[in-house]
Design a protein that fits this description.
By secondary structure, the protein is α/β, with parallel strands linked by helices. The chain is built from 4 helices and 7 strands; from the N terminus they run βαβαββααβββ. It is globular and about 40 Å long.
């Protein structure tokens, strides 16, 4: 599925729309350039799940956990993770067992561990605010 966004708010709205269709245990794997809108998309997912908390990038903490919505949301930033072994060392399997949604930024660093994920590629468009969003995976695209 190809989507187009003209603003950060539209990117969030696409994320909220996707979240309505997610089931427990879904992994959503993001790729895209720095500043492309991955965290904005996850903010929208959180809103779509009914998460009341403010969503921020987990750049320095690797994972932020959000409760209080229809499903828990586990937001990963794997920019500093260099291998699948490191992913499992931080407790990846424990997060999967908890039945929430795992949103994984910089998923290309561990793509072998995310074989059944919904893949979201976000690319810069022709202006600073435009984005091209490609969603593929089970039931998408």
């Amino acid at each position: 599925m190809e989507r187009y966004s003209a603003s950060e708010q539209e990117t969030e709205a696409i994320g909220a729309e996707l979240a309505q269709r997610l089931v427990p245990g879904t992994v959503v794997a993001f790729t895209g350039d720095l500043g492309a809108g991955k965290t904005a998309f996850v903010r929208g997912m959180a809103r779509g799940l009914g998460v009341p908390a403010r969503v921020t990038s987990p750049t320095f903490t690797i994972v932020n956990e959000y409760e209080g919505g229809r499903l828990p949301l586990f937001h990963f930033d794997l920019y500093r993770i260099g291998s699948e072994d490191e992913l499992f060392d931080i407790g990846w399997e424990d997060f999967l067992r908890r039945g929430g949604i795992c949103a994984v930024e910089w998923s290309e660093n561990v793509e072998g561990a995310l074989s059944e994920a919904i893949l979201i590629e976000i690319r810069h468009g022709s202006t600073d605010t435009e984005r091209s969003i490609t969603i593929t995976g089970e039931g998408f695209g």
